[in-house]
Amino acid sequence: MGLIEIAIKIIIALPLGIWLYHDSRARDFSWLIWTFAxxxxxxxxxxxxxxxxxxxxxxxxxxxxSGALLKCPHCNKKFHETLFICPFCQKNAKRExxxxxxxxxxxxxxxxxxxxxxxxxx
Length: 122
Ligand SMILES: [Zn+2]
Ligand SMILES: [Zn+2]
Hints:
It contains four helices and four strands, in the order ααααββββ. It has helices at 3-26, 31-36, 39-43, 46-63, and strands at 69-71, 78-80, 94-96, 103-105. It has a two-stranded antiparallel sheet with strand order 1-2. Strands 3-4 form a two-stranded antiparallel sheet.
């Protein structure tokens, strides 16, 4: 295994690992496993490593929880819309309506469910 082959594999695996870390953690989706999954690319011989990259990306895109990502008001990192607590800074990334107890977007000043303005402050 030559140095160029190792370099090519690192160039492929490193950005993939960084992307998988951010995206799977934002979606609260087994991020430890996904962050280190690109190691199989480093361990595979070159033609197989390219196929592994495509297959791994495809499996991840199919398996991950679908839905949009929102921006955390505290740390500015992205988090999945169904989450209440930011997976990065562990702070409340949404407000709670004190009337109907539904989660409400941080930017909102009114509950979209019951129109109450009685929301938690943090
Ligand atoms: Zn955060
Ligand atoms: Zn409400």
